[in-house]
From TrEMBL, chain A:
It holds the Pfam family BPD_transp_2. The chain crosses the membrane at residues 63-86, 93-115, 157-177, 209-226, 232-251, 258-277, 289-307. Its main location: membrane. This is Sugar ABC transporter permease. GO terms for cellular component: plasma membrane. It is a multi-pass membrane protein. It comes from Zhengella mangrovi. It is found in: Cell membrane. Keywords: Cell membrane, Membrane, Transmembrane, Transmembrane helix.
From TrEMBL, chain B:
It is a multi-pass membrane protein. InterPro entries: ABC_transp_permease. It holds the Pfam family BPD_transp_2. This is Sugar ABC transporter permease. The keyword Cell membrane applies. It comes from the Bacteria. It is found in: Cell membrane. The chain crosses the membrane at residues 15-36, 43-62, 68-86, 93-113, 119-137, 144-165, 206-225, 253-274, 280-299, 306-328, 334-353.
Length: 324, 380
């Protein structure tokens, strides 16, 4: 058996690269859903962020300004979702669907109107795009057997947003489980009336959660268009927002689990690419479409309660009405 | 919510408020057109004349509307049961498989009028079957139907790609599609319907499934408001507790409703596959499953509202194509934005203008109408 196809450095390396946008979006969804606001508009916010990021990076000539605009636009969409679900007490699912469409259409229309390249943004060159970070001693330690190449290929040589994404996992854990804000955030997703009774504003808490969601989706979008790719192309999120949503459920709304779920889904995709057209022992060739569908299939199996039970935050999806 | 609001008369509830929401959605769309550097009023003119200005335009408008009637009804039926079926896209896609299998098997055997009912059955059966697993998981395991149906959309896409680049593709062909059906698996065109009104046209894809869509709309109305099953569906949607108390089996009603919903979405495939392209192609659904959500929300889940809402969206699709041709800065993706804005304002923000309208009615109408509190009749 050729283990390089399964666990080779290039497979693991692309696992990390594929997982990062999932992880950022997944953590984004975590804040919103933990506060009791369901968000199936992660995809739309990522896409809007990706477009805004690439458009700004190319116009202002700086990847960081691109990132700033990605976050700005994504937070704007998040606030629309917040307004619809918190203030207007509308259906959160419907609002999420709407945001996905507005972002998908808007990015292409404005992209075409502004850059006239069929919905693309101009290719990002030089400082307009994030460059990879080479960690200290990556090259000099490269010669050390086993660990050297792992350090050089896997740990070093990624975009700064990759390190940020993995840093956000312990940060999110700490915020949610070790701060007063986090306790209140989780409480408002389970029992908003209790939080309200304690004299804390349910509305303000949820708005803050939704804004954090927007910020992280902006990072995710910027990673796609300003780091991983050199520019925005139509539908570049290609369902990643929904895989992130699936990962969130798979992780049972917990940050560390979220990282493992995203790495798993990323690994499945990387494996699918690596194994394309190569027969496996015993089962023969696995169709690439099966590998693509596997995250969704696994999530459905999980939801069916065959791999533990995924229990969403209790107040999720229900607008809070102060008085009855 | 201290001030009492008037209970709205039905025409305001079902006519005025959707109209206000829709108007706002279009005003915001106009802003997007402005941002893209074009004149929104001129764009609206091109849109309407492109959709209704010629016989061909009308034919295409109604052709697109046919798709949306089916998917809109699909979403609406599930809404009545309190379920959000976001999986119309996948159910329609799989429904297309049913149509194609019938057409491929029988297009040299039976005449079209035998193939048509067979294809209806097959598309409905496969569409319904695709909704079955999410339904049973919701009913028995409490898995959120929104999430499972989204997942099933993606699974459906993978399945269809797998089949279309593999088993269904004719030998020696590169394109991921089936062979073209023989004439006995083509639905009759309805061009004469438009020429009857004195319009001239070149061939349009409008076909018999438009009539089927109207018939099915009537049947859905009959089902929801005139049968015992429909009553049970609405009871379940209005109050699951009351329905349990009345002895209605939750599992049964959820599964049946979702399968009807899936069947309706599946039947949408008849229109493009059997009526127009005469072969099964990759991504032939092109978002119609999602437009169904907008259509159902706009039409207040009632066939009498869904049909005009579908025609409106058919107009946007057809007029949008003309628009893309006339205005280089606007592509057909404009429809996607409008669709999103309609879903936002007619769906998620449907109660945004309600208090204002109610206050207005409260101050205009007679005192005794004013007494009704707002708590009654919350829509969902």
């Amino acid at each position: 058996m050729d283990w390089h196809l399964y666990l080779g450095l290039n497979v693991l390396d692309s696992t990390i690269r594929i997982s990062v946008p999932l992880l950022l979006a997944c953590l984004a969804g975590l804040y919103s859903e933990r506060s009791g606001v369901f968000d199936i508009g992660l995809e739309g916010k990522m896409l809007a962020g990706a477009f805004a990021g690439a458009a700004a990076a190319s116009s202002f000539g700086s990847a960081w300004i691109g990132l700033f605009f990605a976050i700005l636009v994504s937070v704007g969409f998040a606030l629309v979702h917040g307004f619809a679900s918190i203030t207007a007490r509308g259906n959160q699912i419907v609002s999420g669907v709407a945001i996905n469409f507005i972002a998908a259409g808007g990015a292409v229309i404005l992209g075409q109107a502004w850059f006239k390249q069929g919905g693309r943004t101009p290719s990002l060159v030089g400082d307009e795009r994030f460059s990879v970070v080479t960690l200290p001693f990556a090259d000099s330690l490269g010669g050390v057997p086993l660990l050297g190449p792992v350090y050089r290929e896997l740990v070093s040589g990624h975009y700064i947003l990759v390190y940020f994404a993995f840093l956000m996992v312990p940060v999110t854990w700490w915020v949610l489980f070790r701060t007063r804000f986090g306790l209140r955030l989780r409480a408002v997703g389970e029992n908003p009336a209790a939080v309200d009774t304690a004299g804390i504003s349910v509305t303000f808490l949820r708005y803050r959660a939704v804004m954090i969601t927007g910020i992280l989706c902006g990072f995710s979008g910027a990673y796609l268009s300003v780091a991983q790719n050199a520019g925005f192309v139509k539908d570049m999120t290609a369902g990643k927002g929904f895989i992130a949503l699936a990962a969130l459920i798979f992780a049972k709304w917990r940050p560390v689990n979220a990282m493992f779920a995203c790495l798993l889904f990323g690994y499945l995709e990387a494996l699918g690419i690596s194994l394309q057209g190569k027969p496996l022992p015993v089962i023969g060739t696995v169709p690439v479409q099966f590998m693509q569908a596997l995250p969704y299939i696994l999530t459905v199996i999980l939801l069916a309660g065959f791999i533990g039970k995924a229990i969403p935050p209790r107040a999720g999806g229900v607008p809070y009405v102060k008085e009855r | 919510m201290a001030t009492p609001y008037a209970k709205l008369p039905a025409w305001a509830d079902y006519g005025l408020i959707p109209l206000i929401n829709l108007t706002v959605a279009f005003l915001v769309s106009g802003l997007v057109v402005l941002l893209a550097g074009e004149n929104p009023v001129k764009a609206a003119g091109i849109l309407v004349s492109g959709a209704f200005g010629s016989g061909s335009g009308i034919g295409y408008t109604l052709f697109y509307a046919t798709n949306f009637i089916f998917t809109g009804l699909s979403v609406a039926v599930a809404f009545h049961c309190g379920l959000f079926n976001i999986g119309g896209e996948g159910q329609a896609y799989i429904g297309g498989l049913g149509v194609a299998l019938v057409c491929l098997a029988f297009d040299t055997v039976f005449p079209w009028w035998l193939n048509f009912p067979l294809a209806i059955l097959a598309s409905a059966a496969l569409g319904g079957a695709w909704a079955f697993i999410p339904a049973i998981l919701q009913a028995r395991r409490g898995s959120h139907i929104v999430i499972t149906t989204i997942m099933f959309n993606f699974i459906a896409a993978s399945v269809m790609v797998y089949l279309l680049v593999g088993a269904l593709k004719p030998l020696g062909s590169m394109a991921p599609q089936t062979r073209t059906f023989e004439a006995a698996a083509h639905l009759p065109k309805l061009d004469w319907l438009i020429t009857m009104f004195g319009f001239k046209l070149r061939s349009t894809p409008l076909n018999l499934s438009f009539v089927l869509a109207l018939v099915v709309s009537f049947l859905v109305w009959l089902l929801i408001w005139r049968t015992k099953l429909g009553y049970e569906i609405r009871t379940q949607g209005f109050s699951p507790r009351a329905s349990r108390y009345a002895g209605i089996s939750e599992t049964r009603i959820i599964v049946i409703t979702m399968m009807i919903s899936g069947a309706l979405a599946g039947m949408m495939a008849l229109n493009p596959v059997m009526g127009d392209q005469h072969r099964l192609q990759l991504d032939f659904v092109t978002g119609a499953g999602f437009v169904g959500i907008a259509v159902a929300l706009m039409g207040r889940s009632h066939p009498a509202g869904i049909i005009p809402a579908s025609i409106l969206f058919g107009m946007l699709y057809q007029g949008g194509a003309e628009l893309a041709f006339e205005m280089p800065n606007i592509s057909r993706d404009m429809i996607v934005i409008i669709q999103g804005l309609v879903i936002l304002f007619a769906g998620a923000l449907e109660n945004l203008f309600r208090p204002a309208v109610q206050a207005f009615f409260g101050s205009v109408l007679h005192e005794d109408v004013r007494a009704a509190p707002i708590a009654s009749g919350e829509s969902h």
